């Protein structure tokens, strides 16, 4: 079975201090240590999978195409540093507009990745900056790390084997 690191996007991978919704490429600023931490986790044999709520789509703030363009930009930024994301899952819904089964803290996005890639949850981790990230990870059987928003991701490396 494979092992994976599941990561929240906004506040974990990229800085979201100035914008609640990050959907423009020019607003995408990686948090300190992201490239180094993800590269190290890849060398340890972990798949890297992003799990993100993008409720601004449902609220009409931006489109799914906008998110896809941003994710292409994110992949390019990381690839330039030798980091390859295995997949990005996002929920386009928002509880103020509609109900869904995929929005964190529900574990559906994680469960889809576990099944699709044959990932062992007992060997895998969820890293996020909000309680809902940890709740989704715990519900899927992952080990979880709650970080301070926009902190240096290298700080978690000592916690992960």
Task: Give an overview of the whole structure.
With 161 residues, the chain is α/β, with parallel strands linked by helices. The protein has a domain at 1-44 and 56-89: Rossmann fold (3-Layer(aba) Sandwich), CATH 3.40.50. The chain contains 4 helices and 5 strands, in the order E-H-E-H-E-H-E-H-E. A 5-stranded parallel β-sheet has the order 3-2-1-4-5. Strand 4 (125-128), helix 4 (131-139) and strand 5 (143-146) form a beta-alpha-beta unit. The chain is globular and about 40 Å long. The mean pLDDT is 97.
Number of strands: 5
In DSSP terms (H or I, runs of 4 or more residues), the helix count works out at 4
Instruction: Specify the overall morphology.
Output: globular
CATH topology of the domain at 1-44 and 56-89: Rossmann fold
CATH architecture of the domain at 1-44 and 56-89: 3-Layer(aba) Sandwich
β-strand percent reads 5-15%
Range of helix content: 25-40%
How is the main sheet built?
Answer: 5 strands, parallel
Q: Please state how the strands of the largest beta sheet are arranged side by side.
A: 3-2-1-4-5
- Cα radius of gyration in angstroms: 15 Å
Q: Structural class from helices and strands? A: alpha/beta
Calculate the terminal CA-CA distance, rounded to whole Å.
16 Å
Uncertain stretches of 5 or more adjacent residues: none
Name of the level-1 CATH class of the domain at 1-44 and 56-89: Alpha Beta
Give the SSE string. EHEHEHEHE
Fourth CATH level, the homologous superfamily of the domain at 1-44 and 56-89: HAD superfamily/HAD-like
The average pLDDT value, as a whole number, equals: 97
């Amino acid at each position: 079975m494979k092992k994976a690191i599941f990561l929240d996007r906004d506040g974990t991978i990229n800085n979201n201090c100035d914008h609640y919704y990050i959907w423009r490429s020019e607003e995408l600023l990686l948090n300190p240590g992201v490239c180094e931490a993800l590269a190290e986790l890849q060398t340890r044999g972990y798949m890297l999978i992003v799990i993100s709520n993008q409720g601004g789509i449902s609220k009409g703030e931006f489109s799914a195409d906008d998110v896809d363009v941003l994710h292409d930009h994110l992949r390019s930024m990381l690839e330039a540093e030798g980091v390859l994301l295995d997949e990005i899952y996002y929920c386009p819904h928002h509880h103020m507009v509609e109900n869904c089964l995929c929005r964190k803290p529900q574990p559906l996005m994680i469960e889809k990745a576990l099944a699709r890639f044959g990932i062992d949850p007992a060997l895998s981790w969820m890293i996020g900056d909000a309680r809902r990230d940890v709740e989704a990870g715990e519900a899927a059987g992952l080990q979880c790390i709650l970080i301070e928003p926009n902190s240096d991701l290298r700080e978690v490396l000592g916690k992960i084997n």
